[in-house]
Amino acid sequence: MEKVLFKEEQRFHQWWLWLIIITSALISTVPFMIGIYTQEVLGKPWGNNPGSTGLLIFVLVFDLILMLGIIWLFLKMSLQVEIREGGLNYKFPPLLLKWKTIAKDEIESFTVRTYRPVSEFGGWGIKGSSRKKAYNVSGNIGLELVLKNGRKVLFGTQKSQAIKYAMEKMMNGERLKKDD
Predict the structure, then answer these.
(1) pTM here?
(2) What are the residues facing 7 on neighbouring strands?
(3) What kind and span of H or E run contains 18?
(4) Looking at the domain assignment, is residue 97 inside a domain?
(5) 47, 91, 100, 157 from 96: Cα distances, Å
(6) Which residues pair with 142 in a beta bridge?
(7) Are strands 152-156 and 132-136 parallel, antiparallel or unpaired?
(8) Residue 160's closest CA among 113, 121, 126?
(9) Which residues does residue 100 pair with via DSSP β-bridges, in sequence order?
(10) What total of structural domains would you count in the chain?
(11) Which domain does 162 fall in, by range?
């Protein structure tokens, strides 16, 4: 079994992202709760063209399921990257469940660089095109691989020195000493 030279798992922990998600959940559900309360408890029609309470309940339940699904997705989502002697392995569950491998012999070059997630890739997550793709969760530092087929793949990292060291070891085929 190949030795793991580097391992990193990142999750969506940004406070502003959770603020957006929770605010969106409240903005989309609270009006329907108010509508149901207005029609059922106060006995007044809600809005200029009120729907039935059953319709309001249906929309509220649908919205709650959707919002809970989005919250679950962001709680479970993580970028996992491993560098082994034979290549780089990655997955992004629950969107990309199985490990994908970029073999050492597919890599032309690599660099650890600062990038602009929004302007270069459209944000965080799995972004880009078939020629230039990014897998990132937070921050603006990444390992960019240039593959021999011309494609570029960037992996966001919070451990820039460690990932660079592991890539150098992997690409140069150097065996790590026991204390590395």
Answers:
(1) 0.82
(2) 82
(3) helix 15-40
(4) yes
(5) 43, 6, 9, 18
(6) 113, 156
(7) parallel
(8) 113
(9) 90
(10) 2
(11) 4-9+80-172
Query: Pairing state of beta strands 78-84 and 96-103?
Result: unpaired
Look up residue 11 and give its two tokens: 């999750």
The reply to whether 90 and 160 lie within a common domain is yes
Taking a C-beta distance cutoff of 8 angstroms, is the pair 78, 93 a contact? yes
23 to each of 16, 72, 115, 164, 170, how far by Cα in Å? Answer: 10, 15, 29, 38, 44
Nearest Cα residue to 139 out of 89, 79, 98, 94: 79
CA distance 7 to 18: 26
pLDDT for res 179? 44
Q: Phi/psi at 4 (nearest 5 deg)?
A: -80, 120
Same-domain check for residues 62 and 136 = no
- pLDDT bucket at 176, cuts 50 / 70 / 90: very low
**pLDDT value, residue 97:** 95
Both 34 and 97 in a single domain?
no
Which of helix, strand or coil describes residue 8? strand
Number of other CB atoms surrounding residue 81 within 10 Å:
22
CA-based diameter of the chain, in Å? 76
CA–CA distance, 177 with 78 (Å, rounded to integer): 30
